[in-house]
Please model this.
Amino acid sequence: MILEGILAVCQPLTILWIAIGVVVGIIFGAIPGLTATMAIVMFLPVTYSMSASQGIAMLMALYIGGISGGLISAILLNIPGTPSSVATCFDGKPMANKGQAGRALGTGVVFSFVGTLIGIGILMVLAPVLCAFALKFQAYEYCALALFSLSMVVALTGTDMPKGLISAVLGALLATVGLAPIDSRPRFTFDMYQLNNGFALVVLLIGLFAISEVMSFAESVRKKEDFSIEQNVKMKGAGFSLAEFIMQIPNAIVSALIGVGIGILPGIGGGVSCMISYTVSKNTSKHRELYGTGIMDGIVASETANNATIGGAVIPLLSLGIPGDPATAMLLGGLMIHNVAPGPLIYEKNGAVVYAIFTAMLIAAVMMLLFMLWGMRFFVSVLKVPKNYLLPIVMVLCGIGAIGNANQIFDTYVMVGFGLMAFLMIKAKIPTVPMILGFILGPTFEQNLRRVSQLASSDPFWNHPIFCVLIVATVLVVIFSVRANLKDAAREDSNE
Amino acid sequence: MSKKIFCALVLVLALVSGCFAADWPAKTINIYVTHAAGGDTDYMARQLGAQLEKILGVSVVLSNVTGSNGATCMQQYRNGAKDGYTFIATNTAALNGNEATGMVDFGYNAFEPVAVYGIQSGENIVVPASSPYKTLKDLIDASKEKPGQIRLGISMGGGVYIMACVLQNIGKAQFNIIEAGDAANRLTALLGNAIDATSIPYSSAADYIEKGQLRSLCTVLSKSPTLLPGQPAASEVIPELKLDTEYALLAPKGTPAEIVKAMNDAVMKACATAEWKKIVNDFSWQDPFYFDVEGSIANLKAQRDLFMSLVPILEIQ
Amino acid sequence: MSMKKDKQYKLDIIPGIVLAAFSIFYMLQIPKVRVFKSLGATPLTNHFVPYLWGGCMLALSLWLVIRGVMKYNRLKKQNALPPSESFFAVLWDKREVVFSFIALALYVGFMESIGFVITTCIYTFVQILILTPRERWAKNFLPALIIALVTGFLLFYVFKVMLNVLLPVGIYGMGL
Model:
């Protein structure tokens, strides 16, 4: 059965589809506004007419390529290509500014690969055990998990806490627009049916990162001397030494575990996993003050975690038939259409397909590594394109992404609105990153809080040990982060 | 005078629509799918699109415009181009359900129905295999004995909600109704022992039933799928408990009747092939299921009438 | 507290007031949301969390306002208030940003009626010029025009024709 699965993938045509999937995925991931999910949505219908193993192999390749490609624009343009690479910007762009774009890309690519491998490894070995754990997460646990993840906001706010919190709360407020969770009543839609769907994460990201990048360039137009940024980028191998790689291994393992853990729990996703692992890595590091100035550790944390989330998310998808995010929901559809029903019997009924999926993921991971390392020279040359030409094209692509997300032109109006909001926020020195956490986690928190309110009378919280642990952990994280923030603020003051 | 103008108008209209029908189809046909890629509504629409392409000889382009259980797409295209090149592919549970639960204020009458062209494998009411209940009646009786003790997981607003309202109000069951989210979430909740019973699509439950983790009490289809015969139907216990999800093709209101007819002919031709039979057998355990224009409208009306008769018990303000 | 931070008192007061007004507006909208009371309704309704976030926002923005006023008072005591700038002067100083937003708004505003290709070509061209200093316009005019045309047509072909994204066709039919 294992051999049968491997053989099903190791055919020229299937390998070709994987290669195409990886390349298309990387392109979609790398272009701001187009995401891995969108790549899967657009190519899913193409796979309807393929054989099961070909179709699924291609979808997996799109997924892996898409999540990995996001780091390119995060590092080179300071615009995350996908929600999963938001935290890659934090250290990626400062590194590129220091002339180490190649090193930053190399780190991102290699540790994306490492993260993917760890994720797939855990998927292959531990899937059944972890599923039992995932089933323990019901309303109470999710409610506490959302709170716990939200508490990371405090660590991400930086030295100006009220403004960081405002950003997060504003994100949560924006997420309340649209049909309410649970009862589907429209809220704050002002009778516009287009608002019933709420705001899309990708549209918010375009506003927060892409438009604000264009505007910050616009501000400096008359001050610029030279237009093409002559980056003297030296590229040797992956851009870093073996010793540096070994130094990062503990960081990578912790980040990968966080990534897999978040991947297993349906409904949280890669956008959160990279930020949480970045925060954890920063707060446990001996040189936390260097985070954000362009060090490898930050990129390693973010990129290992978001790629490990892939393996994590596939665990409940295959073993329970439960998708964890929009991308895996598409994959589930892709499997069902080929008459592969994910669930507890998948190993018995479609064992060959399962091993075909594992093989396809491994091949896709290797191809991703090779294509990205090989393409780095080309990616870096993006920096040589004059920005006054590059950014307008990026804007047009973002507009296409906003339309393509739900085939709604209305979303482009929202995009411009978010862009204006982001510009004003930056002028007011309100950080934009906490907003993303608030936006993603706000609805999860609300939905589960309301379910808990329904359960509380018959099923009190002390029956839920995981809930209690998470709540205590939340309190500890908040206290620790507030103290660390105050310390940072004091240091900043004394430096001035 | 006015009569003359009227006659002239009718003549012109007839001519214009005649022309339409004669050269139709001359260019790409756009079908807007109300649900996301990967779902059953999308799959069926795309399979139909591929067949129509062969029959009509023009390209058929499918695009997903998703959100609000299909309401977004229907709202956007119900007044779309009436030139016969714009169609909407949806399912009847969303079309009629959204009207009954008050999500939108229009029903199939706001469109020109073209065809009902398929039926889903349906949802089943399931309990863990360890539970003592063997039939739907057992479950309802048990809930009456222990009011508010048996937890029924539902999601608000959709077909499952209508089902729960029928169970509580017409079936006089006394479940503890727990909101448990979409089908995947309800499955998780059932496996994680957060609820005692729920309704999920047969396709997601099949493996668990076979492995002996879950037990199906009944299907909520009016009769069990052709390839899964012998399942008890919920309507045997409560006649109003019928939830048939059928796939429908609609055109914007005002699309010429000739074109609707011509499109329906093409759909019927597609559904009569052996290839189509294999597709639906494999995908939804059903035999081909399709109607001409009048039959499709009658079918939609029957379900709408049933759903609208339930509006008083849905207690939606 | 350093003087430098105090001088940014406006960055506390103005956003604080705007956000406080926004949160009040937001909370005034909440009672208009229909509450779901029938079968399976949750004790915490769909009003609860909006009030929670709205309340948090109001509290945080008031904190910001108070902090800003305190900074202002400290500066006043030291007679170190920075000279105020005219709003229009600031706007003129950032004219490229203002023009970029106007161009972007017009672009998306007219895209549906005029069509993707034409609006994209015009927008790309205009935006390239906005991001180019005046003295270099002559040199960049032709390349900008070519890039704009290529962008409009190529992206339309790739995304609309190949990938089926519903980009608006507009008055430029192309027989599609």
Observations:
- Helices of chain C lie at 3-6, 10-29, 48-77, 87-93, 95-114, 116-130, 137-162.
- The mean pLDDT of chain C is 89.
- Chain C has two domains: 3-84, 90-162.
- The interface with chain B takes residues 34-40, 42, 164, 166, 175-176 of chain C (CB under 8 Å).
